[in-house]
């Protein structure tokens, strides 16, 4: 059974759909409960088993509730995918506190909240452990290489990598594998969509073309690429892999967004 935060759309929905297609029961979380419900309905129409739960990962009470709902729906928890995230780009010298706090709270504190809440279902008496459980955190290449006008997002995702590596060691004796996937430019997400009225949360169309032309492998990444990596790190085939960060960027390690 898997819990996917921010699973109502984009990369999160692709991850949930992939895991469900491989026989995993999934619980989709989204801050917007209606979005989570529609995503779960979509998976059920495709023949998968899915539940949904609303709530913000920034709220420890919500994190407890979503983990509890996942356990109640399907009787336990084997996989946690911390996918919830957002960007709010601005230059550091003019970034307001609320913009910094928002991104760090969702991307980093949200990952901490969900992992802490999930511990009570993932951790078991070593004598009762019969198979590995998995935590997969969605980081970003910006957390490794940085990006201008994204110091909040880069810092938060670097923190997610730190959480991943520390928790991998902390939970290794429980046979809980903790890894991260660090995507680069992924087409079809809010990051690659049109900008809002403030010029944030997206990339201008001409920049999208410029970025895609620079990708060495010759094509952009898609949510399904990330989902495939998460599926591997969630499977028994990755039982000997922990504390690792899988970069997925087609060879384009650094993306100039502004």
| Number of H- or I-type helical stretches | 8
Helix content: 40-55%
CATH topology: Rossmann fold
**Domain count:** 1
- What percent strand? 5-15%
Overall pLDDT, averaged?
Answer: 92
Largest sheet: 7 strands, parallel
Indicate the structural class.
alpha/beta
Number of strands: 7
The best one-word shape is: globular
Instruction: Tell me the distance between the termini.
Output: 40 Å
**Rg (CA only):** 17 Å
Describe the strand arrangement of the main beta sheet, using strand numbers. Answer: 3-2-1-4-5-6-7
CATH-level-2 architecture: 3-Layer(aba) Sandwich
Overview of the structural elements:
The structure is a single chain. With 258 residues, the chain is of the alpha/beta class. It has one domain (2-248): Rossmann fold. Helix content is 43%, strand content 14%. The protein has helices spanning 10-21, 33-45, 60-74, 97-122, 142-145, 151-170, 205-214, 223-233; strands at residues 2-4, 26-30, 50-54, 79-82, 133-138, 176-183, 245-248. A 7-stranded parallel beta sheet has the order 3-2-1-4-5-6-7, with helices on both faces. Strand 4, helix 4 and strand 5 form a beta-alpha-beta unit.
């Amino acid at each position: 059974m898997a819990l996917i935060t921010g699973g109502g759309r984009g990369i999160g929905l692709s991850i949930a759909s992939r895991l469900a297609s491989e026989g995993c029961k999934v619980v989709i979380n989204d801050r917007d409960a209606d979005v989570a419900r529609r995503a779960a309905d979509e998976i059920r129409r495709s023949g998968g088993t899915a539940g949904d739960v609303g709530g913000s990962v920034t709220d420890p009470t919500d994190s407890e509730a979503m983990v509890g709902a996942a356990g109640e729906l399907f009787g336990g928890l084997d996989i946690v995918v911390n996918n919830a995230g957002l960007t709010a780009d601005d230059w550091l010298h003019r970034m307001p506190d609320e913009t910094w706090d928002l991104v760090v709270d969702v991307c980093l504190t949200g990952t901490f909240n969900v992992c802490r809440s999930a511990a009570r279902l993932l951790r078991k008496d070593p004598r009762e452990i019969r198979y590995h459980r998995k935590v997969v955190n969605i980081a970003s290449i910006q957390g490794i290489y940085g990006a201008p006008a994204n110091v909040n997002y880069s810092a938060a995702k670097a923190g997610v990598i730190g959480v991943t590596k520390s928790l991998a060691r902390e939970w290794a004796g429980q046979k809980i594998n903790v890894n991260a996937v660090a995507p680069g430019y992924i087409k079809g997400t809010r990051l690659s969509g049109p900008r809002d009225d403030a010029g944030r949360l997206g990339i201008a169309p001409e920049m999208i073309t410029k970025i895609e032309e620079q990708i060495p492998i010759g094509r952009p990444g898609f949510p399904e690429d990330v989902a495939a990596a998460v599926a591997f790190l969630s499977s028994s085939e990755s039982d000997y892999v922990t504390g690792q960060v899988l970069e997925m960027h087609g060879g384009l390690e650094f993306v100039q967004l502004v």
